[in-house]
Design a protein that fits this description.
Blueprint lengths: L2 E8 L3 H8 L9 H5 L2 H10 L3 E6 L14 E4 L3 E2 L14 E2 L2 H13 L5 E3 L6 H11 L9 E6 L9 H16 L6 E7 L16 H13 L1 H5 L3 H8 L7 H8 L5 E12 L2 E10 L3
Parallel strand pairs: 1-8, 2-7, 2-8, 3-6
Antiparallel strand pairs: 1-10, 3-7, 4-5, 9-10
Helix pairs in contact: 1-5, 4-6, 6-10
């Protein structure tokens, strides 16, 4: 049977993608950011997953104010790289896994989560930057990727509790899929940052590290954080952290922390990264 073996959480700062694409990862400014991903790059190569489920948010490329799905699951065979205004990133196209994606859609919708099913969609830096951090610059991504886009741009975003419960429904769905597959689920976005207005550049390391602690040891408490606390403590874009709760919900109640990295700043954002492995019940 298919199994989610681990979770991988990471910021998806667009400037990180630019640094990779332009060969700047060894520069003094960027080296501490990328050094924190060396251990997890080796880890994921050793795990050699068959499929990745990528929980991310679209940045007005596939969706806009004309259409705002709360949860959108990509069920296509492949996904083109979006042009976000300066040309598509020079990365491979994303190959999907329609069979597992449609199975997840059926299982999760029958568990009363109203997903939007998407059969044609371009993917932006929210999805490609974490792939680059995990796998470098290959000619092709090493495994299929199932995109799960979450609305954290237009109010109201889903609650942390709803995201945690969706992760649990995804775990159930994957476990009921017949073929043997090793699946790693990514939760992306965050950490604390604000891109506009008087608090532009806000970073709250205390909040970020407390969230990392809760995500590992007390996900229910992390899921109880209200929207206003993300706004107040982590900035207007800190709400992206609810996507990490989808990842956490898809894991076992007890997890083992394999790797943790936190760095300030990358661009005007705090960078956080966690790798969590499931523990036997």
């Amino acid at each position: 049977m298919a199994e989610i073996i681990a979770g991988y959480a990471s910021s998806h700062v667009p400037a990180i993608g630019v640094a990779i694409d332009q060969g700047k990862t060894g520069e003094n400014y960027w080296q501490p950011v990328f050094a924190g991903y060396e251990a997890s790059r080796k880890w994921i190569a050793e795990q050699n997953p068959d499929v990745i489920i990528m929980v991310y948010n679209d940045h007005a490329t596939a969706f806009s104010l004309e259409m705002i799905p709360t949860f959108a699951l990509g069920c296509a065979a492949e996904f083109a790289i979006a042009d976000e205004g300066w040309g598509p990133r020079p990365v491979p196209k994303v190959v999907g896994h329609p069979e597992l994606a449609w199975h997840i859609a059926q299982s999760v919708i029958l568990d009363e989560f109203d997903l939007t099913i998407v059969n044609q969609m371009e993917v932006d830096h929210g999805l490609t930057v974490p792939l680059s951090l995990a796998f470098g610059q290959p000619e092709a991504w090493p495994c299929p990727v199932i995109p799960l886009a979450v609305n954290v741009v237009q109010y109201p975003p889903p609650t942390g509790h709803r995201c945690l419960q969706l992760g649990r429904a995804i775990r159930k769905a994957v476990a009921s899929f017949g073929p043997d597959l090793k699946v790693v689920i990514f939760g992306t976005g965050g950490m604390s940052h604000q891109l506009q207005a008087e608090r532009a550049g806000l970073i709250n390391a205390d909040f970020d590290n407390r969230f990392l602690d809760l995500l590992v040891n007390d996900p229910e408490a992390a899921a109880a954080i209200p929207h206003v606390d993300y706004l107040r403590e982590a900035g207007s874009e800190g709400i992206e952290l609810v996507m990490w709760l989808v990842m956490r919900g898809a894991l076992s109640p007890d997890v083992r922390q394999i790797h943790r990295h936190y760095h300030v700043p990358a661009s005007n954002t705090a960078v956080g990264h966690l790798v969590l492995e499931n523990q036997p019940a």
